[in-house]
Design a protein that fits this description.
CATH architecture of one domain in chain B: Orthogonal Bundle
Radius of gyration of chain B: 23 Å
Oligomer: heterodimer
Number of helices of chain B: 3
CATH superfamily of one domain in chain A: Amidase signature (AS) domain
Mean pLDDT of chain B: 88
Largest sheet of chain B: none
Largest interface: A-B, 73 and 58 residues
Helix content of chain A: 25-40%
Distance between the termini of chain B: 45 Å
CATH topology of one domain in chain A: Amidase signature (AS) enzymes
Number of strands of chain B: 0
Order of helices and strands of chain B: HHH
Distance between the termini of chain A: 24 Å
CATH architecture of one domain in chain A: Alpha-Beta Complex
Strand order of the largest sheet of chain A: 1-3-2-4-6-5-10-11-9-7-8
Structural class of chain A: alpha/beta
Shape of chain A: globular
Low-confidence stretches of chain A: none
Radius of gyration of chain A: 21 Å
Number of strands of chain A: 11
Structural class of chain B: mainly alpha
Largest sheet of chain A: 11 strands, mixed
Low-confidence stretches of chain B: none
Mean pLDDT of chain A: 97
Number of helices of chain A: 15
């Protein structure tokens, strides 16, 4: 049995049946990290002591013959924007290079309570701002499928860790596509749950009206199991919804025959790579052959999503990142004579170029004289974008699109052109703005063997349907290949 | 050009950033390029559209109520200890760059 090739269920059963131990599973993944991660760079910090203690707890439960919790012994990576008590949490930023949180993020605590073994913290773009992972203050992540290419971002480390078998599943965060786009680039499954489905308590904030936590996994079923674990009301996050959590796994096998799938021409226009288009169209045909009914829908405001997103996300970021002042936590520049000089120099030295750019754009959009023209305007267009989906979802059960207009691009290819980088999120940002759910699943490869991602968007709190569709496609495409 | 070097200096000041001369030049270029792209929002007539500040504006809220009552779903009992015990002083100060053991220490704020 190759311990780095297991799914959540096969790992838990193997431990329960005493065919392996949680300790062996953790050690096998650490060994893999040892040999592979030098060239990939997916992990920023490993927490072996914490992992082995948890593995030991699981193994003792198994030895006593007691039933194991759903994620027992499952090695996971946690994106470094999630706080972990006693384990350095940097958000990919120099300014938090030495930050050790005094508490755990709710999603992480729920994973561990369900038996998961946290191996370490995964690399990401600084404060989750980026689409290539090149904005990490520590090191870029390289795509395990092709080391000359980016893994996507901002959850590039989480996607690469899962793709390279350095974790069975990982948690990521999605503000404009940061779970789904790297999942697509690395050939794994990435799920962004509905806004409010998963508590963000302990998530280092980027843009609070857009931030989501969700899983990256090797299979749709594993993503469903993780969602079932982390979803649900948390009194520590007032934006977490007080709605029951359905059993996302129970309905996976339900037939998809008769479900209505929307296809919007706005997601197949200029800029879409031909190979990606072909793969996604083949996937749509596959869904038809499973009995889904394909219905054309219109999302007319789609071309306005990127400008709307980059105003709202940066405005919120400029406010959220005001807390990094070198007083309570984070690095302080030495030698400043006045408080104001200390703030400025600490932020100048602690933040990278993209973070400064976004703080500047957001501050500008909120500043006197520009608020109405930029920030308020963007909030109004956000209403129009949300309405587009509301209208489309009256006709269909889900919407199917490419996740990203291209497969993984090369390191350095877009890093000097912020606008070109922003356009990598063109098919993902609208779902964040509307607060709906979305999943990216692999749907083939380019001629150069780079993974292509298929995105399925769902109604608010209807992850059950998109998981079911994704699972049906995953099964059908595996039989076909 | 929408944004000048003077604007960049002003906005950096608001954001508590200093920025080097090179950074300011780059920022003028990048902000103008991004704002040019953002200008396409002006094509849309939004005069009768309500702004959407957060997603919960569109579900979960009780439209029949006014003010904070509309967001009743997000409220909780007010309990004296809060939802969890406060951090100890020691752990609250543990990440601070400079303390005297009781307070955060910063460069002098008030001149006398």
């Amino acid at each position: 049995m190759d311990l780095t090739q297991l799914t959540i269920d096969s790992a838990r059963s193997a431990i329960q049946e005493r065919k392996t131990t949680a300790l062996a599973l953790a050690e096998a993944h650490y060994a893999r990290i040892q040999t592979e991660d030098g060239q990939i760079g997916a992990y920023l910090t490993l927490c072996k002591e914490r992992a082995l203690e948890q593995a030991d707890r699981i193994d003792r439960t198994a030895a006593e013959g007691k039933p194991l919790p759903p994620l027992a012994g499952v090695p996971v990576g946690i994106k470094d924007v999630m706080s972990t008590r006693g384990v350095r949490s940097t958000a990919g930023s120099k300014i938090l290079g030495n930050y050790i949180p005094p508490y755990d993020c709710t999603a992480v605590a729920r994973m561990e309570a369900a038996g998961a073994v946290v191996l370490g913290k995964t690399n990401c773009d600084e404060f989750a701002m980026g689409s290539s992972n090149e904005n990490s203050a520590f090191q870029p992540v390289r795509n395990p499928r092709d080391l000359s290419r980016v893994p996507g971002g901002s959850s590039g480390g989480s996607a690469a860790a899962v793709a390279a078998d350095m974790a069975i599943v990982a948690l990521g965060s999605d503000t404009g596509g940061s779970i789904r786009q790297p999942a697509s680039f690395c050939g794994v499954v990435g799920l962004m749950p509905t806004y409010g489905r998963v508590s963000r308590y302990g998530l280092i904030a980027f843009a609070s009206s857009l931030d989501h936590i969700g899983p990256l996994a090797k299979t749709v079923k594993d993503a469903a199991i993780v969602l079932r674990t982390i979803a649900g009301r948390d009194p520590m996050d007032s934006t977490s919804a007080d709605l029951p959590v359905p059993d996302y796994v129970a309905d996976l096998e339900k037939p998809v025959r008769g479900l209505k799938l929307g296809v919007a021409e706005e997601y197949f226009g200029e800029g879409l790579d031909d190979e990606v288009r072909h793969a996604v169209e083949s996937a749509i045909d596959q869904m038809k052959s499973l009995g889904c009914v394909v219905v054309p829908v219109s999302l007319p405001h789609t071309p306005y999503a990127i400008p709307t997103y980059y105003l709202i996300a940066t405005a919120e970021a400029s406010s959220n990142l005001a807390r990094y002042d070198g007083v309570r936590y984070g690095d302080r520049a030495p030698g400043a004579k006045t408080l104001s000089e200390m703030y400025r120099r600490s932020r100048d030295e602690g933040f990278g170029a993209e973070v400064k750019r976004r703080i500047m754009l957001g501050t500008y959009a909120l500043s006197a004289g520009y608020y109405d023209a930029y920030y308020l305007k963007a909030q109004k267009v956000r209403t129009l974008l949300a309405r587009d989906f509301e209208e489309a979802f009256q006709k269909v059960d889900a919407i199917i699109t490419p996740t990203s207009p291209t497969a993984a691009f090369r390191l350095g290819e877009k890093s000097n052109d912020p606008l070109a980088m922003y356009l990598a999120d063109i098919y993902t940002v609208t779902a964040d703005l509307a607060g709906i759910s979305g999943i990216s699943i692999p749907c083939g490869e380019t001629k150069e063997k780079l993974p292509i991602g298929l995105q399925i968007l769902g109604k608010h709190f209807d992850e059950v349907t998109i998981l079911r569709l994704a699972h049906a496609y995953e099964k059908a495409s595996q039989i076909g290949s | 050009m929408k944004v000048t070097e003077k604007d960049v200096t002003y906005v950096a000041d608001l954001a508590n950033l200093e920025l080097s001369a090179d950074e300011r030049t780059g920022m003028v270029r990048d902000l103008n390029s991004i704002l040019d792209y953002i200008e396409r929002l002006d094509e849309l007539d939004t005069s009768n559209v309500k702004p959407m500040a957060q997603v919960s504006d569109r579900y979960g809220l009780d439209e029949s109520k006014q003010g904070s009552e509309r967001f009743a779903y997000a409220s909780r009992e007010d309990v004296p200890e809060g939802l969890r015990k406060s951090l100890s002083r020691e752990s609250a100060l543990a990440n601070a760059p400079d303390t005297d053991g009781t307070f955060f220490r910063v460069p002098k704020v008030i001149e006398r």
